[in-house]
Amino acid sequence: MIAYKFLRTDGTGVFTRFPWPLPNGEPGAWVEAPITACHSGVHACRVRDLPLWLGRELYEIELDGEILEERTKIVGSRGRLTRRIDGWDDNARAAYTRACADRAHGYAAGMPDWDMAVEPAAANGPASMGFIAARIAEARDGLDAYHAERDRQVAWLVERLGL
Asked: Residues with Cβ < 8 Å from 100, sequence gap 6 or more?
């Protein structure tokens, strides 16, 4: 199964700091771990989960073995990085952040307390800004608006990164 994984710039896991075998013209070595969601296993995300896990570098990952699908992530008993998604670079991160900030300002029209939160969130980068945009949409129009904004974020990433 093909999924996606965000890593730090040094190729380590964002939460675990596990040093991933990186692809170099061919897939990296397989990594194996028993599955215990949020504790053990090879954690990754589906396309629809990308905005929830935004990080510095994005890789395509192949999952194999036992696979557990959860609400906001997917966990496999083994996985290997197949390629880096080069389009997720400084320019893409800045453009994504700005697109989310612009939509957030639109959602916050007439809501000055929320509007004041937009630019500070934008300064914190794409993950923070995506969350704030979705929360402002929810505050204005309800939970369906939160999900609609997250769907817009997914669509932006899919189009920009060619996923």
From this structure: 122, 126, 129, 130, 132, 133, 153
Average pLDDT, the chain: 96
Q: How far apart are CA 2 and CA 64, in angstroms?
A: 9
Cα 19–chain centre separation: 19
Tell me how far CA of residue 28 lies from CA of 64, 78, 89, 99, in angstroms. 14, 12, 21, 33
* CB of 5 closer than 8 Å to CB of 22: no
Under 8 Å between Cβ of 133 and 114: no
Pure H helices in the chain: 90-107, 112-123, 126-141, 143-161
Q: Please state the domain extents for the chain.
A: 2-84, 90-161
| DSSP category for residue 26 | S
Q: How far apart are CA 26 and CA 14, in angstroms?
A: 23
Contact of 159 with 99, CB cutoff 8 Å? no
Q: Which residues contact 54 (CB under 8 A, 6 or more apart)?
A: 6, 96, 125, 126, 127, 130
Task: Tell me the pLDDT tens digit for each residue of 107-163.
Answer: 999 999 999 999 999 999 999 999 999 999 999 999 999 999 999 999 999 999 999
